[in-house]
Protein: Protoporphyrinogen oxidase
Amino acid sequence: MATFLVLYGTGEGQTEKIATRIGDVLIDRGHGATTVDANEVSPDFAIDDFDAILVGASIHAGKHQRAVREFVTTNRDSLATKPTAFFQVSLSSADEGGEAQAAGYVEEFIEATDWHPDRIGLFGGALRYTKYGFVKRLIMKQIAKRKVTKMPEADPSGDIEITDWDEVDAFAADIAAFAEGQLGITPPTADDQAGLE
Structure:
């Protein structure tokens, strides 16, 4: 069993939801997973207590959360010694036409932090119209019309979730398998997993 840290920054909560889902997949695979908001990390937080680290951030106005950038920059040397992954949540990732823009945000993050994660995941986020003020709601509706060609139906509140959960699950399974290989851990068998239930 490996211990995973899933650290994230979130705006309206979709990145937190994705981080939680990743943690659940890792736990279902037989590993330990701790999910932490980057804004709640204390200065004495010890990432050396974890075998592998996943870091997630969302894009707002073309930028990732400052707390996530600071965490990565501060812990860059320790991150370099472990299996790592970075996942980004944005509207650009929800549409094929926005893939280059989404990849550009990741490149800027890597350049700014000088961190080179082993795996990278790009996920569509959500439009939380119920959390926006009047002006932001209008702006986000216009952006969504331009960027998201296959808009899913809104839930009863009017919010729209664009995350492909199968992609999230596959990403979590991939980083788990990668970490198992790097750490020399035998992947749990179906019998092992049945014993955890």
Notes: The helical segments are 14-28, 66-74, 76-79, 99-113, 134-147, 165-183, 190-196. The radius of gyration is 17 Å. The CA atoms of residues 80 and 115 lie 8 Å apart. The chain has one domain: 3-125+164-196.
